[in-house]
Design a protein that fits this description.
The chain is mainly alpha-helical and about 575 residues long. It folds into 2 domains: about 375 residues, no CATH class; about 140 residues, 2-Layer Sandwich (Transcription Regulator spoIIAA), CATH 3.30.750. About 65% of the residues lie in helices and about 5% in strands. The protein has 25 helices and 6 strands. β3, α21 and β4 form a beta-alpha-beta unit. About 50% of the residues are buried.
Length: about 575
């Protein structure tokens, strides 16, 4: 029996889900797959064009990798394909090494991802601190937006420079050539997406905007650039299998970019899988997911595709549309294939300004902007790490930013762990002060349970707190988290605590923290976390936490009775 379970740890979710698959689940997957397939169409083309390639390269990538990631992956509802995270790095690789270099780099990154998965490093991504992840996403969002200014305003500019400040200078110098029609289309695209989202998350705003913009251009014959006028349209038919040319002279120069693609792919795919878990009450297998991501990236260049990873927005759309299993992701890929086979000539009429508007929305959504105010309330170390990562991403190079981020993460970890070491004399006062913190003489009531964190709660250890929420329905109404032996806390740990508090609150339970030491308590109090949990639920010791638990339980009882009715 143990051997069976050991083997199952490496089985894709698509196989595990077939055990209780039904016609009802298939119908849900069919609707979700078609919906997310249509949503993926403009995004795949936009990401490819922004990367300096043809629109069909993005569609080929979405078809091949979308099918393989769903078929072989460790997440039930995640959607894979080209994403905004790769736009900047792909454009840089193509500019320096050409398309052959990009295909080689993608294969190399795919092999790295497979190795990471097979060696159990799927959980190693957690060792990247949250300020670094936010710095990456902020910087990438700014870079994506800057690459879309030309098409957004219809500027007459032959070539957009690859370096950020040179790009902004060239755009400013040529801004007088802007097109009112293109700008109106792009702004209208953003408005349509915002309105659709305001009405319902189930309405695919990108598809509505793409169809509406294409119809407006066709009916009124607006003088704007389209996919057909720039690229000569999209070839109909199946993508052709062609083994990329493997040039040994490029290997040395591509190791850094390949590592960047692999790290970004791992980070984004596992972040997307976590979002998928949260929305669908599932739990992904990170190592199986990385193996699938790696295999998909090895195969993608053989069909002229780009690097791929888990796509958070498309994954959320998939779940909101009713997806139940990975079959929805495979149907999403087949939907794109059907568009390529039977409707490619209509895609040629899509205006570039509409795609630019869609990518502007993507850049805004991926930027994690709402996290910046909270981040600025953290320690100066966290803020400086975020600023350095953000600046290097925008003004230097994404490869440099990833490498610097990893070095900063290591130094930050060493610094935080070193700060937790203390030497002090045991005195009578110390012993007396500790009596209110000990558990041995305390009665824990039936309506409460106590969890403890022992040691530094920093990036790399935060996934351990999942033990609280894994069996949330078996927990009593009040959960006490004892922090007496938590020696240090960072931004990633604080974010994990906030996620636990949010989950418990959504389930109708109360969270009480007690016994936090000086550094963790200072971080908790200087951020919005204290307001979210409530100052009354942050207690000095376990004795006062148990007293507070009784008050919280009395307050929760009427809510529980109302819910039961």
């Amino acid at each position: 029996m143990e051997q069976v379970f050991a083997d199952e740890r490496w089985l894709p979710k698509s196989i595990l889900c077939l055990r209780d698959y039904s016609l009802e689940k298939f119908l849900h997957d069919l609707l979700a797959g078609i919906t997310v397939g249509l949503v993926a169409l403009p995004l795949a083309m936009a990401f490819s064009i922004a990367s300096g390639l043809t629109p069909q390269a993005g569609i080929y990538c979405a078809i091949v990798t979308g099918f393989l990631i769903s078929a072989l992956g460790g997440s039930t509802t995640q959607i894979g394909g080209p994403t905004g995270a790769f736009v900047v790095v792909i454009a840089g690789i193509v500019a320096l090494h050409g398309v052959d270099g990009l295909f080689m780099c993608t294969v190399m990154a795919g092999v790295m991802l497979v190795i990471m998965g097979l060696t159990g490093m799927g959980s190693a991504v957690k060792f990247i601190p949250r300020p670094i992840v936010i710095g990456f996403t902020n910087g990438i969002a700014i870079l994506i937006a800057s690459t879309q200014v030309k098409d957004f305003f219809g500027l007459k500019l032959e070539k957009v420079p690859g370096v950020f400040w040179l790009r902004m200078e060239a755009l400013a110098q040529n801004f007088h050539t802007f097109s009112i029609a293109a700008a109106a289309l792009a702004i209208g695209t953003i408005l349509i997406i915002v309105v659709c989202r305001g009405i319902s998350n189930r309405i695919p705003g990108a598809i509505v905007a793409m169809v509406a913009g294409t119809v407006v251009v066709a009916v009124f014959k607006l003088p704007v650039e389209t996919i057909g006028s720039r690229f000569g349209g999209i070839p109909s038919g199946l993508p052709h299998l062609q083994i990329p040319v493997f040039r040994t002279d490029l290997i040395h120069g591509l190791i850094g970019p390949a590592l960047t693609v692999a790290m970004l792919g791992a980070i984004e795919s596992l972040m997307s899988a976590v979002v998928s878990d949260r929305m669908s009450n599932d739990r992904h297998n990170p190592n199986v997911e990385l193996v699938a991501q790696g295999f998909a990236n090895v195969v993608s260049p053989m069909f002229g595709g780009l690097p791929a990873t888990g796509a958070i927005a498309r994954t959320a759309t998939n779940i909101r549309s009713g997806a139940k299993t990975p079959v929805a992701g495979m149907i999403h890929a087949l939907t794109l294939l059907a568009v390529l086979l039977f409707a490619s000539r209509w895609v040629s009429f899509v205006p570039m300004a509409v795609l630019a508007g869609i990518l502007m929305v993507v850049a805004y959504n991926m930027g994690e902007w709402f996290e910046i105010p909270s981040l600025l309330k953290l320690t100066k170390t966290d803020i400086s790490v975020w600023l350095v990562t953000f600046a290097l991403t925008v003004f230097a190079d994404l490869t440099v930013a990833v490498q610097a981020g990893m070095i900063l993460a290591a130094l930050l970890f060493i610094s935080r762990v070193a700060a937790t070491t203390t030497v002090s004399q045991v005195t009578d006062d110390y012993i007396e002060d500790g009596r209110v913190h000990i558990l041995q003489d305390k009665d824990i009531p039936y309506y409460a349970t106590i969890f403890r964190i022992h040691g530094p709660f920093l990036f790399g250890a935060t996934d351990k707190i999942a033990v609280i929420t894994e069996k949330i329905h078996n927990l009593p109404p009040v959960v006490i988290l004892r922090l007496r032996n938590m020696t240090a806390l960072d931004a990633t740990g604080l974010f994990a605590l906030e996620e636990v508090a949010r989950t418990l609150k959504a389930s109708g339970r109360a969270l009480i923290l007690c016994g936090a030491r000086e550094q963790p308590l200072r971080l908790i109090q200087q951020t919005e976390f204290e307001e979210f949990v409530g100052p009354e639920n942050i207690c000095d010791n376990v004795q006062s936490a148990l007293e507070r638990a009784e008050e919280a339980f009395e307050r929760l009882k009427p809510l529980a009775k109302a819910t039961a009715k």
